[in-house]
Amino acid sequence: MLHFSRSKIISICAISIVAMFLALPNLFSDQKISNFPSFIPSQKVNLGLDLQGGSHLLLEVDTDSIEKEKIEDLTFDLRRMLKKDGIKYNNLKVINDSIIFKITDATLVSGLVKNIKELSQSTSQNAVSAQSKSNLEIDINNDLINVSLTDDYLKQISISAVNQSIEIVRRRIDELGTREPTIQKQGTSRILIQLPGLDDPERIKSLLGKTAKLTFKLVDQKASYDPSNPTKAPVGSEILSSDSNSEFKYIVKKKVMVGGENLVDAQPGFDSQTNEPVVNFRFDRIGAKKFGKVTKANIGKPFAIILDNKVVSAPVIRDAILGGSGQISGGFSAEEAADLAVLLRAGALPAPLVILEERSVGPDLGADSILAGKIAALIGFIAVIIFMVLVYRSFGFFADVALILNLIMVLGILSLLQATLTLPGIAGIILTIGMAVDANVLIFERIKEELRSGSSVINSVDSGYKRALSTILDANITTLIAASILFFMGSGPVKGFSVTLAIGIFTSVFTAFTVTRLMVSIYISKMKPKELRL
Amino acid sequence: MNIFSFAINTKIKFLSFRKPAFVLSMALIVSSILIYSINGLNFGIDFRGGTLIEIETAETENLGNLRRSLNSLNLGDVQVQEFGSSKNILIRVEQQAGGDKTQQNVVNIVKAELNTSLNSDVNFRRTEVVGPKVSAELIKAGVIAIIVAVFAMLIYIWFRFEWQFSLGAVIALIHDVLLTLGIFSLFQLEFNLSIIAAILTIVGYSMNDTVVVYDRVRENLRKHRKKDILDLLNISINETLSRTIMTSVTTLLALLSLYIFGGSVIKGFTFAMIWGVLVGTYSSIFIAAPLLNYLEVKRDWSTSGAVESTQK
């Protein structure tokens, strides 16, 4: 175990030098690294959000609400169809996401089923569901009819809603110019967002919390709001609150005159007369046409601008607006106007997003954590180094060299893999400092035993290494098992811990059997000691 | 003689202490379970859901006043405590009724209240909000991770040694995990995700220690076929004692440094690790090794394959 071939010595040195090269950028500022010659690697350790500061948000797309909306639309269409065809029915209700009703004349059933199927084709215009297969499941029990959406269709709409949400979330975040955001899909209906360096996530959270569904509807001027009966609205109209004051109610016609999907642009600006912050918008061709028609026919009437079921404002139409552009004012601050413009440009979310988890760390705490981690690592490191030399003398020194190299290798590998270093990850490195000497301790203790049993120095060292090997492997594999389970089951910061722990295990076993052994072998062959003082 | 070269050629009769050690460990396990069933664990927001806000104020603030003003917000249980220094304050608000949607409001309400009721400038250092869905999943994942880890160890040791070793090692492991839960329950220390990580690391460390002793036991079983098992276990523990102490000391040195200098956020994790190293070292010597005496470990190792795992 003490003989090293030339090629082995060269590879050990080469690996050590490569590790140092990889770890090197971590000693310098980004600015200095940019001046390095190109052969020196420039990748630093990737700091986790808990160290560099930033926000981690886990969102869930509320797919249930889309399902509800689809059923509501279907109910609406169904009632209209039944009325149009003159089919008498009663007890139409929605129970557990299916529409149940009775028809009085059971002989009409077969014709009705055909019509309902056609209805489903026309309601779903998107390409995915335009297949010949129906999206509806229709159960008939004599005169009792039960209509529901098929599971396949529900799955399809939820998948497309999640994908669409991710796209819109990305657009909204990009609009704010956040640096290097990570937006990932997690599981079936979740979105994980990581925003490094963001110290105030409130603005992004409030942006993501809005569906931003914009509609224009006419105000129902015939009805007036009755506070003693707050839910009563004429057929075809609905009661909506004002955005700025939830006590103030509007009664508006349900029919959507123009929708946000026809917008092509929205920019914050100021009203030319009042100098109040406003949002200027522009419609596409279809939107402009619709908008022109409505405004032309309703001059002198209030027109409600509705965002997420709240009335932003309801200005009176003064002239027909034919150019397809307009202005929303609603007592905004400049920032509110800017945010609304962002939301309108990025488009409406297909379903509301719910924040399931938030973890935000300010940049101060991150910097404090890094500093504390560095100090703790340094002091722990020095304590272990001194202790090893006190106990094992020159062999302790060899182990210490390996320990230093060990740390460099951990840093180098972290930089190379671009694995994320978190606060628990720093703890993992410090723990590695304590545990990394274990392999060498096992070997040295073994050598001591061999010496005590009367073997020569060379034989003792040789068999010390040989015999300790299987113990070292067994002992480290157990820790490696624990680390890998942490990696696969853990989340975020804990994952970072398992990564550094696992890397530390590999490097400590590697350095014990290469670097330390090489030094011991050189020491023995050059100094030829008669006895070892271990 | 080097004064730092300790534990050389010791001939301590560890196995004579096996009964008192078992009694002690049983007593500790029973009290851990008792304390746990009375006190429960002080779950952090990772597992209980809720909101945690760490702030730093420019001046030292009166915590009593702050507590009163936050309690007047009707957010349920609000805890206010100093965190590391007198200007750092940790605020915990319990999970709100009404599912994931309502949790976010707490942050806005508390932040607004802090901005008005504190006399000096506030720096929001950390905000964590965990809703009921995620906290339930995290508990499940944590429990599964620990169980899977213990099983993985059981299988690995069975594969590398014999079933008696594997059983002994796992009993020692469960001992360590239970005592760690016990001390967290006793002192009502916050039990969060990082403590699960610490417990898994303890599992790895304790196993590492046990494997080194068991490795020597196996070697000695091959060497001394006729020796009394108690003597053989004593010899094995003594032969590995200096290594056991050395590694525990270096690991504790690093952990103590982390505990003292590593900052408040990581203190709970480090405490669990320090406790785990102490308990794990104790259990490898006084529980795992003596158990081999009772589990009737195989004596005939004439077919000396290391990876052999046939039963007696």
Account of the 3D structure:
- The complex is a heterodimer of chains A (534) and B (312).
- By secondary structure, chain A is α+β, with helices and mostly antiparallel strands.
- Chain A has 3 domains: 6-52 and 364-527, Up-down Bundle (Multidrug efflux transporter AcrB transmembrane fold), CATH 1.20.1640; 63-150, Gyrase A, domain 2; 209-359, Gyrase A, domain 2.
- Chain A has 13 helices and 19 strands.
- Chain A has a 6-stranded mixed β-sheet.
- In chain A, β5 (136-141) and β6 (144-149) form a beta hairpin.
- The longest helix of chain A is centred in the last third of the chain and has 55 residues, at 363-417.
- Mean pLDDT of chain A is 86; it is low at 124-132.
- The two termini of chain B are 45 Å apart.
- Chain B has 2 domains: 14-43 and 135-294, Multidrug efflux transporter AcrB transmembrane fold, CATH 1.20.1640.10; 50-130, 2-Layer Sandwich (Alpha-Beta Plaits), CATH 3.30.70.3400.
- Residues 304-312 of chain B have low confidence and may be disordered.
- Chain B has helices spanning 18-39, 45-48, 63-71, 100-117, 132-160, 163-186, 193-223, 229-261, 267-294, and strands at 42-43, 50-57, 78-83, 85-94, 122-130, 190-191.
- In chain B, the strands form 2 sheets. In chain B, strands 3-4-2-5 form a 4-stranded antiparallel β-sheet. A two-stranded parallel sheet of chain B has the order 1-6.
- At the A-B interface, β18, α10, α11, α12 and α13 of A face α4, β5, α5, α7 and α8 of B.
- β18 of chain A pairs antiparallel with β5 (122-130) of chain B, so a sheet runs across the interface.
